[in-house]
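[SOLVED] Predicted holo structure with pyridoxal-5'-phosphate

Edit: marking solved, answer below. Original request kept for reference. I posted the sequence and ligand SMILES and asked for the 3D complex as structure tokens.
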Amino acid sequence: MRIPAVHEIKRKFTELYPDYPESYFTNPARRVVSKIRELWKRGKISELKEEFLLKLMQEVFTEYETPSLKRVINATGVVIHTNLGRSPLSEEAITQLVCVAKYYSNLEYDLTKGKRGSRYVHVEEILKEITGAEGALVVNNNAAAVLISLNTLAKGKEVIVSRGELVEIGGSFRIPEVMKWAGCILREVGTTNKTHFFDYEDAITENTAMLLKVHRSNFALVGFTKEVSTEDLVALGKKYGLYVMKDLGSGCFIDFSKYGYLKEPTVQEVLRAGVDVVTFSGDKLLGGPQAGIILGKKELIDKIRKNPLNRALRIDKLTLAGLEATLRLYRDEKIAIEHIPILKMILTPEEELLKRAKKLLRKLKRAIKSFTFELIKTTGKTGGGALPLLELPSWAVGVKSSSLSPSQLQEILREVRPPIIARVEQDVLLLDLRCVFEEEIPLIVRAFKELEVYGTEKV
Ligand SMILES: *Cc1c(COP(=O)(O)O)cnc(C)c1O
């Protein structure tokens, strides 16, 4: 079999897509040629049919034209899914972000004085207003917030942490390592399941600078356990003149127990308990863009702001715009719940999810014959290191195929446009409706229609 030359395929591309110059097709043509060579070597083709070549070229070009970072449909039922970009933003945040992206802004310009200003002022007041904190600073993410706070307040000194709180979050954030990079000496106390007040007190030396409490985020200790409350740690810190810091991880402003959910400590409560510094993420339970928020005593926040590391960890203007708009929604809890997508998703009642699942089921059953669909009761999760024990009662559409296994189906759905990320449970593929936007339902139906018409085979 003769393998076509790159320049031949390039010319063919210009016939297929006449709006582009021929030079645009160098890379796609190379990909096509190498794919043909590979298929031929593996014995998959013995002659090059025109129809096959055109299909291959279209596939390659579509892939070439699709951005790598793209939207997906989250049908997993996990609301703050770190792999899927955590929190989708509110309309308010998007509008503000687009405006600041498109035009110039007063990012570091004081409009009253007509001279250089600070980027941090844009969220400082609103953070203080909502939480009652004395001082506020934002950085790139919560890992950065923990790093810079430790480095500023306890460099070269000992930081006492309970063994039950030496957590790892999402692979690379591990408390012992962050401690090392911040230049602090980790002093672990207590045991995995129990840490007492006296464990902390006995570990205090002349070189101790801080007592650190870390939210366990992605796991829970149950059974024979004991931990020291934030209030008690604050009292101990006062007695010995030590800083008390809390890495709250998710950080939420809303008391979920009011809505019948498990209790997650709020930022306001932690501050009221008297900690010197609290840090948390902008894109977990807060529902904003990726950011690390540091709140606490004014003089300490000022010190952290002046740390040269701050320049390396600084927040960018798009994030600031999205974050400020998100925070403003929290002036009223009802508005926050209505406008911030992840709060709305978490608080969506089960009956509503059942209604949505029935709607999707009806549409799929009507349009598609080669798969079977059924309603399945299931549970979702908040994710994002928040409420690890909370099971959110939910409804899903289960999908079965006579020729494909659930994991094969799962793989195929990852390749449709936009990709649909689904879960497999008890040998059934589930489309959980909690995190599926209303306007995505037709996209799911369309994807299944295309699978039915064009089949699931790729070239
Ligand atoms: C998620 C989390 C972090 C890391 O926050 P990022 O915003 O992802 O950097 C740190 N500490 C705790 C306890 C967390 O849950």
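OP edit: DSSP finds 18 helices and 17 strands in the chain. Thanks to everyone who chimed in.
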